[in-house]
# Entry
Amino acid sequence: MRLTKCDFMRGVQCPKMLWLDKHNPQYKVIPPDVRDRLEAGNDFGDRAMGMWGTYVEMTARTPSGRIDCSAMLFNTQAHLQKKTPVLCEAAFAVGDLYCAVDILRLDEEGCYQMYEVKDAEAVEPQFVLDAAFQYYVATRSIKISRVYIVIHGEGDLLVPCDVTDLIIATQKGLPAMINRVHAAGDTLDEPNVCCGKQCKTPYRCWYWDYCHTQKRRNKYERI
Ligand code: SF4
# Structure
């Protein structure tokens, strides 16, 4: 099973969430307000792409409009070799791990800095873990000198927050976390996970209705 950054983060929040994504996504319900927030986040991400001036976007699509990961990996390698100053959506893969980094920017020493863009007003712990996964995958191919999370400032300001030390400190525990998430997604049977705090932290789960209906059903069956 290929594990993207999004898969990893969802599997960390709840192994059953990732399993349902892979095996029973038809139970997913994305509330309209969440859809609106995701779209707003995309607009913020699009604006951030230009924060260092001219950039080259690695995004590629198949004729049917799906994201073409292989073409993105190929484009990224070609531009890294050319030392393109700013790459957006630069794609990396190692084994079955895959990620696309929001922005890579060449620094004065000829090394790339990584920027992850978040439509938020503060750096949250889940953003650091998310960037740590990207760093883990990307640094199998290139050296990254600094890592920043870009959040909202006042008005239209984009604020890069240096999280390099946090990202490096998180690396040691990542392989074990990745293995656990992988194992959860790969099991044949639905993981037996009770509803709890993880259903709304850090994000409300899109399988809320499915699991909480199941919980009520189990309760009544016991009565
Ligand atoms: S609703 Fe809760 S238990 Fe069910 S998949 Fe989501 S986080 Fe996991």
Notes: The chain has a mean pLDDT of 93. Strands lie at 3-4, 56-57, 86-94, 97-106, 112-117, 144-152, 158-162. The chain has one domain: 3-192. The first strand starts at residue 3 and ends at 4.
